[in-house]
Amino acid sequence: MKHSFLPGLVTATLAIACIVAPVQSGAQTGTPGKGMSGEAVKIGVLTDLSGIYADIGGEGSVVAARMAVEDFGGSVLGRPIQVIFADHQNRVDVGARLAIEWIERDGVDMITDSLNSAVAIAVSHVAAKRKRIVINTGAASTRLTNEDCSPYLVHHTYDTYALAHGTARAVVQEGGKTWFFITADYPFGRSLEREAGEVVLASGGKVLGAARHPFNAKDFDPLVRAARSSGAEIIGLANAGGDMINTIRAAAAQGLAKNQSIAGLLVFSSDIHTLGLQATQGMYVTEAWYWDLNDETRAWSRRFFERTQRMPSMVHAGTYSAVTMYLRAVQATGTDDADTVMKWLKSNSHSDMFGKDMHVRPDGRLMHDMYLLQVKKPAESKVPWDYYHLRRVIPSAEAFQPLAESRCPLVRKR
């Protein structure tokens, strides 16, 4: 499943590489701020470089972060911008330890990507305790803006509420009334199953049951058999990356009943690329971004493709946007002080190739539109990576959990 495309990338257990983007003409410069904490502004991309989510973030997130730094000009307030990266191995202890080392030893100012919800929650707690910013672009659990919210966290790209409400609602409206879930048994999967189930019930459908599997499971056949025997019209996949791909492959090998269909609740264009249109045609998916949305997304994606030979995922685009947002905030405030930067991020709107007029709510949720997409039939795809029909733009106010329903202590204190 993993495709290596960053020449010379070290993916050893705790590999950390520093990449200093060159200062180009037109670089963002200014008087070095008195509030600057070091000789460089350091951004850490903490991601899955070697596991089942590597195609979603991984090396592509490092490329996207580098592109953001280069486009910004390579420096801010007279200081060079450095990008460091590491593989958290989808382990909470490794992710937390790397975050501590980055902050306390290396002086990292902002951490991004954070693929894997369990890792992301742990890293957010580490960063909050040390007053450092996390702009999460890879993890989905809404716990990050509810029970585990932080004054130093921005939940950037997508979350389980948006995914469930986009895809599950569309599938029920198309007639898929009875559901059975195959779920990754950790915070992301449990959040996605719960929130999709709530949408199914609210839309007049029924949930007939669920089967859960450990992260990076080896055998999906028993889960598919349980889904088949349930008689549910829709098999909802509350998993992602290699787990989701292997579930679909197991379902194809066993053969579902004629009246059963699969709904992938977190699907990326890279997953469609791996599985092929023949296996995925007609599926509804909800994404925060797609490379072929408009001229701006296409232009950026072609630049990304030149470096990677793959089109970017929404996590890659989100990481580019997160780094850009952060650097603009540092430039505008004249400091990398986390409290000052977060205040600016929550007080100003943000626009880039990821989205327009985005803003950060008090719970840390970045508000932007989401997109309901449908996978094309093979004959409808005209060029490589041409995988989706855009079926609906979901406005941000509809896409994400209403602030009035938030369980975030920061919101309840207001």
Uncertain segments of ≥5 residues (pLDDT<50)? Answer: 1-33
Arithmetic mean of pLDDT: 91
CATH class of the largest domain: Alpha Beta
CATH topology of the largest domain: Rossmann fold
> For the report, how would you describe the main beta sheet?
7 strands, mixed
Task: Give the end-to-end Cα distance, rounded to a whole number of Å.
Answer: 46 Å
Q: What is the number of E strands?
A: 17
- CATH homologous superfamily (4th level) name of the largest domain: Response regulator
- How many domains, as an integer? 2
Inertia-based shape: globular
List the total number of helices: 14
Question: What is this structure, in a nutshell?
Answer:
It is built from 14 helices and 17 strands. The chain is an alpha/beta fold and 414 residues long.
Q: What does this protein structure show overall?
A:
This protein is of the alpha/beta class and 414 residues long. It has 2 domains: 17-158 and 293-368, Response regulator (Rossmann fold); 161-287 and 370-404, Response regulator (Rossmann fold, 3-Layer(aba) Sandwich), CATH 3.40.50. It has 14 helices and 17 strands. Helix 1 runs parallel beside helix 11 (314-333), helix 2 packs parallel to helix 3 and helix 4 packs parallel to helix 5 (187-202). The termini are far apart.
Summarize this structure as a short list of keywords or feature phrases.
414 residues; alpha/beta; Rossmann fold; 14 helices; 17 strands; four-stranded parallel β-sheet; seven-stranded mixed β-sheet; 2 domains
